[in-house]
């Protein structure tokens, strides 16, 4: 990551099940496991020039993660 961006980038992520649908047949983006949102199973760190996302999913399955960066 360039030095000029190190303190100007904010990272956001969204984790969901690959095949999650609600009763209307639409993708359900508010999935949680036992009252805990899936995004709580992701640890995001920035160290020097490296941005890391460690994901420890609560159960076996297929997942999608979307990662975004924006200038602040």
Describe this structure in words.
With 72 residues, the protein is an all-beta fold. The chain has one domain. 0% of the residues lie in helices and 47% in strands. It contains no helices and 6 strands. The strands form 3 sheets. The protein has a two-stranded antiparallel ribbon. A hairpin with a 2-residue loop joins strand 2 (32-33) and strand 3. 1% of the residues are buried. The model has no long low-confidence stretch (mean pLDDT 84). InterPro entries: Ig-like_KY, Transglut-like_Superfamily_Mod. This is KY-like immunoglobulin-like domain-containing protein. Residues 7-70 form the KY-like immunoglobulin-like domain.
Structural descriptors:
Transglut-like_Superfamily_Mod; Ig-like_KY; mainly beta; two-stranded antiparallel sheet; 72 residues; KY-like immunoglobulin-like domain-containing protein; 6 strands
Q: What structural class is derived from the secondary structure elements?
A: mainly beta
Q: Order of strands side by side in the largest beta sheet?
A: 1-6
* Count of beta strands: 6
Main beta-sheet strand count, sense and barrel state: 2 strands, antiparallel
State the order of secondary-structure elements, H for helix, E for strand.
EEEEEE
List low-pLDDT spans: none
């Amino acid at each position: 990551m360039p030095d000029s961006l190190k303190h100007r980038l904010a990272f956001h992520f969204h984790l969901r099940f690959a095949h999650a649908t609600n009763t209307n047949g639409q993708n359900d983006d508010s999935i949680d496991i036992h009252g805990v949102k899936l995004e709580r199973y992701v640890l995001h760190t920035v160290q020097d020039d490296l941005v890391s996302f460690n994901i420890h999913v609560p159960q076996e399955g297929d997942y999608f993660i979307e990662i975004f960066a924006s200038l602040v």
